[in-house]
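User: Predict the complex.
Assistant: Input components as received:
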Amino acid sequence: MSQKTFLAVKPEAFKRNDAVGIVKMLEEGLDAKCVSMKVYTPSKELAEAHYAVHSERPFFSELIVSFTSGPVLGMVWEGEGIIDKARTLMGATNPEEAAEGTIRKNFAKSIGDNAIHGSDAAETAENEIKLHFPEAEFSEIASPSAKAEDLVKAVA
Ligand code: DAT
Ligand code: MG
């Protein structure tokens, strides 16, 4: 079944200039299309809504500080089974457990600085897309990594 997922290069990885490299891995590793991409700094309200499921966890406040600390590269990708495919390509939450060839193996530094977010189920994907892309305008981006390069340059 074709579905959409929300993916985002997190602020620390964006700051390290890894956004384009991460998008290249998505482009090459997912048999899917990117249908929206933008750079923005999440507000506290957006971050708290995005991570609401973790609000009782001890790391919640640092998670919010991290996710609001600078620009993210937010994306919507669409394809068959894209939610699980993207999670597999991302790798484990803790990069020490991430498999070879995954984005987190290559780009994450620690569990709290793990480079990328990806929706974990159909319902969360739908909610996260509504939250981050309320404009809901989707059409295929021909070269996601070229578009990422342009967006990164524009904020440099
Ligand atoms: P994922 O991002 O793989 O979906 P998650 O939903 O369990 O992982 O957690 C959301 C984010 O919270 C995760 O990407 C990084 C942070 N996090 C999770 N567990 C943590 C921990 N034990 N210490 C610090 N940060 C943590
Ligand atoms: Mg999660």
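The pocket of 2'-deoxyadenosine-5'-diphosphate (ligand 1) is lined by residues 54, 59, 63, 93, 111-112, 114, 117, 120 (CB under 6 Å).
Let me know if you want any component modeled separately.
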